[in-house]
Amino acid sequence: MRMRLLLLGGGSALGQALIRQGAEEDIGFLAPRPPEQGWDAASLTLLLDETRPDAVINLAYYFDWFQAEQVSESRFAAQERAVERLAELCQHHAVVLLQPSSYRVFDGARATAYGERDEPLPLGLRGQALWRMEQSVRALCPRHVLLRFGWLLDDSAEGAVGRFLRRAVRGDELMLADDRRGNPTPVDDAARVVLAVLKQLDCQSPLWGTYHYGGHEATTALALGQAVLEEARALRAIKSEAVVAQAHAARPDTGDEPQHAVLACKKILNTFGVKPRAWRSGLPSLLDRYFRHI
Fold this sequence. Notes:
By secondary structure, the protein is α/β, with parallel strands linked by helices. Helix content is 41%, strand content 16%.
């Protein structure tokens, strides 16, 4: 890898997966520890001036964007300002910006898979913030890659999978929508995709733009929960016996979570040669890491 890579959010689940996989291929990242208050416009300005990387992978707010149950509007507003500043800095220093985003930029009103050309119409605060960040990146930094991921699954204790497993171990009632669909995407698979994109960019390929990626085989939230529960039983005593089906409309997060969140992934395959990987194959290692670390 000729490019000097700056990884913001190296301590996040996706950041750690990137560092692990990069090390296997002799790809290193400059992954600075964030300031105590987190990355903001001022600290990012100083960082890029000092490090002068060739590419920035922005996972600075990974947990809030992909795993947190709720995030305040003021917190998202501060992150938007920081991303806007980062995009300006990347353009000023001629740095490539790889910015993650999400299926949440769509409202989930249509049952067919969303492509990159479909018009975003986010539902909740998180989707709206991510969409505004996308627009900032496009407007301010032409040399960008926006990667929209499906349902990201990671091994963090407070992430979506972690919250589900904690309740399962306790024996709480588990309810998930049987009419909500998406592409589960284990964090290791997402890291594989980011590395594949970086390798192409390292070859000076000007493949800027927006791309979708989600694990192979779209499924329902209910079926995903059942698969996680089944894998977890092999590793830990689970008191909850089953996942109960519930309608999307009855779920407490229906105002924020799109009912139909399946992403079409042909563009990333045709451009970067990235083939979708079956999400089920990533569950055993993900759950093993989760139970080893809690």
